[in-house]
Design goal:
L-fuculose-1-phosphate Aldolase, 6 helices, about 40% helix
Length: about 210
């Protein structure tokens, strides 16, 4: 079932670790499919992952397959239920994002590229135990009108139309987090005002469009 999507999940999981934004068995990926989602399994190293290890979770939260779904499957399912624009979800523990999350810091508009995540800032959801409904609720709230958010004392979540775009967004947010940490090591960076960020967000609506 959905062999191509399963293979794409395996390939993206390995690409995520190769990119350096994740390591070991932490993090997870999913993609929307008919009647539910496909999600990476719990506690399995991505290097040896096979398409048959990917778990189908239906819209009621019931898992089907030979493996257990990621412990964060609830976050993925709740996002798909609430956000029709989300077709792929990436959760990882990139170093800079996680450092800011452990400080309970959002990423403000210190750089115009913060708008890549859909808003004037990249919020940090409050801490809750991994795998809990409380964590999922907090993530969903802080993803409102956004494509990414940090998770306090935990990591990063990104949503996108495709797995490739979810990975690209995660890499960009990690770069922003690293740059922001460098700024903080010297002092408080200048923050772009709301009017400028609104102009940037408007321009981002057509950014990358290739018209003849």
């Amino acid at each position: 079932m959905n062999e191509e999507l399963r293979s794409n999940l395996v390939d993206t999981a390995n690409a995520m670790n190769r990119s350096g934004i994740n390591q070991g068995t932490s993090g997870n990926l999913s993609v929307r499919c008919e009647d539910g989602m496909l999600v990476t399994p719990s506690g399995m190293a991505y290097e040896g992952l096979k398409s048959g290890d990917i778990v189908f979770v239906d819209k009621k939260g019931m898992a089907h397959g030979t493996r257990l779904p990621s412990s964060e499957w609830r976050i993925h399912l709740d996002i798909y239920t609430a956000r029709t624009d989300a077709c792929a979800i990436l959760h990882a523990h990139p170093t800079a994002c996680t450092a800011l999350a452990c400080l309970h810091k959002s990423i403000p508009a210190f750089h115009y590229m913060v708008a890549v995540a859909g808003g004037r800032d990249i919020r940090c959801a409050p801490y809750a135990t991994f795998g809990s409904q409380e964590l999922s609720d907090g993530v969903l709230k802080n993803l409102q009108d956004r494509k990414a958010c940090l998770m306090a004392n935990h990591g990063l979540v990104c949503i996108a139309p495709t797995l490739d775009k979810a990975l690209a967004l995660a890499i960009e947010v990690e770069h922003l987090a690293r740059t922001y940490l460098h700024c903080l090591s010297v002092g408080a960076p200048a923050i772009l005002d709301d009017a400028e960020m609104d102009r940037v967000l408007l321009k981002f609506r057509t950014y990358g469009d290739q018209k003849s």
